[in-house]
Amino acid sequence: MAGATLSSTLPPRSEVAPVTLRAALPVWARIAALSFGGPAGQIAVMHRVLVEERRWVSESRFLHALNFCTLLPGPEAQQLATYIGWLMHGTRGGLLAGGLFVLPGLLAIMALSWIYALYGEVGLVAGLFFGLKAAVLAIVAEAVLRIGRRALKGPVMVALAGASFVGIFVLDVPFPVIVLAAGVIGYLGGRADLPPFRAGGHGASARDDAGPYLLGDEALPQERASHGHVPRVLGIWGTLWLAPVLALLVLLGPGDVFPEIAVFFSKMAMVTFGGAYAVLTYVAQQAVEHYGWLKPGEMLDGLGMAETTPGPLIMVTQFVGFLAAYRAPGALPPLVAGTLGGLLTTWVTFAPCFLWIFLGAPYVERLRGNRALAAALACVTAAVVGVILNLAVWFALHTIFREVRTLALGPVRVDAPVLASLDPYALALALAALVAVFRLRAGMVTTLAACAAAGLVLRLLGAI
Question: Do the beta carbons of residue 355 and residue 237 sit within 8 Å?
Answer without folding.
Answer: yes
